[in-house]
Amino acid sequence: MAAEGWIWLWRWGWGRRCPGRPGLPGPGPGPTTPLLLLLFLGPVAADITDGNSEHLKREHSLIKPYQGVGSSSMPLWDFQGSTILTSQYVRLTPDERSKEGSIWNHQPCFLKDWEMHVHFKVHGTGKKNLHGDGIALWYTRDRLVPGPVFGSKDNFHGLAIFLDTYPNDETTERVFPYISVMVNNGSLSYDHSKDGRWTELAGCTADFRNREHDTFLAVRYSRGRLTVMTDLEDKNEWKNCIDITGVRLPTGYYFGASAGTGDLSDNHDIISMKLFQLMVEHTPDEENIDWTKIEPSVNFLKSPKDNVDDPTGNFRSGPLTGWRVFLLLLCALLGIIVCAVVGAVVFQKRQERNKRFY
């Protein structure tokens, strides 16, 4: 098991290459990932695709030239609202107020393990928080349903990744633009006034707006592990943003992207969306599951509502106040006492043993 863990660590971290972008180092475990945990994971995740065409699923990919987009004969992608199609990009919204647009894959995805790479661009004339609102990437049961959540419906079923550029909550300490993740079974509503704080699973600050170079985002889902990575610095390397486990997503849902503007606006462009199949072995029990019947969910030890902001723009668990601080101090004190007692006993035994030789 340990050897298999080392192989997995090498492959998923430093020893692999990014799918769809040859020569780009892959997104390895972040600096806070415990090494011992990785060693005992064993062959949980498979080697990531390196961008070979055999792993690229063209029926779920949006690639230039945009053939089969919005056509009446066997379309691969449909779009609605303010979305316009050019030879270089799909513009979900122009830099104008009160616009909503989206683009959705026509084919449901039945892959259990996948990775989506999104080449996008958010830009406009607005300065210093005078722009909005952002892009949402979707893997959901319903498609082409307009709504208030970045141009798409609320109370959705599935996965959403929000690339939010405007802080609606004036009391927040997080730094925008901000990327967050939400999984919904239709029972939760996205609260724009709080920037989705109460339903967010995890998030990070990501400065992707008005960049002069290409900006990319990767979403990887495999064996219940959801990872979001960014390449925003024009350094040809991924940076970890979100990494959570215990995520359950069904097959048969649709990929899409949407954007919305309000009193403030931006150009929200999608240049490409490339879906790669991850070659992962599943147990016989997992293979016998009807993955289309799985309810979107996340196994959390705590509620996402326990999340609070910190000045870095990242999320952490609830503040260490009151009884939490008391318990930490008590554990530290007990540890010191135990060490002192053990040390004293060992010292006394040595003293008694030395006296016997005199």
UniProtKB/TrEMBL annotation:
It is a single-pass type I membrane protein; Single-pass membrane protein. It is found in: Endomembrane system; Golgi apparatus membrane. GO terms for biological process: endoplasmic reticulum to Golgi vesicle-mediated transport. Its main location: membrane. Residues 1-46 form the signal peptide. The chain crosses the membrane at residues 325-347. Residues 54-278 form the L-type lectin-like domain. This is Lectin, mannose binding 2. It comes from Equus asinus. The gene is LMAN2.
